[in-house]
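Example 390.
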Amino acid sequence: MSVGPGFLEPAPPLRALGPVSPSHAVGLTLCALREVWTASRAPHLLPLTPAARLGIVAHRLLEESGRGLLNGLTSDRISARWDEILRRAEEDASRSWLDRHLVPLAGSIPDFEVRKLRAIARASALANEATRTLGEGGSRAHATWRVEVPVATPDGSAAGRIDAVVRTLDGPVIRDYKSGAIHEAGGAGQLEIKGAFSVQLKLYAAIYAAMTGTWPVRLEVVPLVGAPESVPFSREECVRLLSDAVRHRDQVNRIIESEAPIAMKMSCLASPSPSTCAFCPYRPGCRPYTDAIKPNTDSWPIDARGRLVEKKTLGSGRELLTLEVHSSTIRIRGLSPSPSRHPAVNASVAGDNLAAFNLRSGGGQTSFTEGPFTVFYVDPDQYSQPLQPQ
Ligand code: SF4
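Predicted structure in complex with iron/sulfur cluster:
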């Protein structure tokens, strides 16, 4: 989708989905277009948030811990391993023009140290548990604990990788590790486990049962802090969720494999909404999103597409852009002058089409500023949607 830093290309071809995984099944219900691009590993067009990147670091540490790779290590050694995984994650981020200004992650996440200590404490606890649950003489063949367990239905329609399967006297327990918050507000003001996490675990249960012929006795979400929490389930519900997910995948593939023009396919697959699109890394290249946003509403992300009128360097050294968006003129102040931070701004001249994403309100309907996730693209297609106020 991107030919170079700051330049947009038309959307890539849509590829049919393979076996549906529990995480993709949940994503399909939110926006099938996003899931299709995610499954084909289309390059992200917006930054990954530092919190999400740190979550990947924490998950990797927990995974190594569950696999027994940290057995017998002191907290200091586990902390050193955290540093190593973090360093690699930051090197990855530094290679991307979208993300490099967000490293080091410690500078972008206010409670970085708290998150780090929680992840190390959970990894230490898991390492102890993994040591205890190894079989005779430390044999993994007889371990009562397996991590990163690949599972698939016999017909290949669904597959995934379970974080951990723990054998107990009552039967297998399926565990899913989460590095972020696991609760959301439920009925009567009660906190309950996030619906997406519950559905994922139920889908894992159905796939596991289809593969092994054995149903798990318990499904658990394991947070970084606190005890594992059980997700109640019935076999009928799990089977129904799996059947729905496969049917949804098949519908999506029928659209992708049809003879319709790509724009029509994208439109059929997309489910634009303020909450879903706000966290979508493909927004800049998504025409259905651009067509859906409503002017003068406060729930959509603050993005703008327009013609560059003027680019000015202020006394502070920061830049001020003036864009014409439909018949309005908007101003975006305080932009970093660094060409590597905003290559599109650096490359554009008056008259070019520019698209701006993740702006911050500057205190009025036509005044905006840069935030840490603000990104500009030279836009070959003039979408010319009005700016959305915050
Ligand atoms: S921007 Fe919105 S509609 Fe487009 S792919 Fe992302 S979530 Fe779907």
